[in-house]
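Reply to dn_fold:

You asked what the input looked like. This is it:
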Amino acid sequence: MAAQSSAAGRRWFIAVLLVMVTLAVVAGQILSRMARIGAGEGLEWTPASSAPSTGALPEAETTSAAPIETRKLAEPTVRIPSGPVIDHFRVASEPTCPSGTDQVRQEGRPVVLEWKATGAAKTTLAVDGPGIYGSYQAVGSEKLNFPCDGEPGDYQTHTYTLVATGDNGTSSKKLTVRAKIHEIAAT
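and this is what came back:
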């Protein structure tokens, strides 16, 4: 009895699903036709005579109906940057702060930054504020010490600024990097 009830439920579900899909298709066709009619398309042409077709397109008939207004769509605008563009400026290798004990100390790892700039003759890098740390090519990388100072459990942050310079100006991007400060245990 339960198997018959389950099979009947599945048949009912399938029937309802088919009706819903059919209604969705019909609604889509109606909306499509309404959109074409609203745009002045899809109007049927009825020949003036019942002469057999020669394969040529029929001449357009003139009517006294109001003319259909047409508008030209605006061309999309593409903005070409006038100056250099920094394609990417990212951390290639995460830094770490020193850890371990006072007898077996593990030094922290430096941060490695990498970048690519288009339309730039050179790039400069600043660390934690104004001033130039170094000058580089448009595509490059740099390994920098990552000094850690503060309380264990806090995070040390340093901010790096890349400036790309070209014939048509400059562009810049900042990157803030952080590493957790570890306790150096005394033994």
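Residues 1-41 form one domain.
Hope that clears it up.
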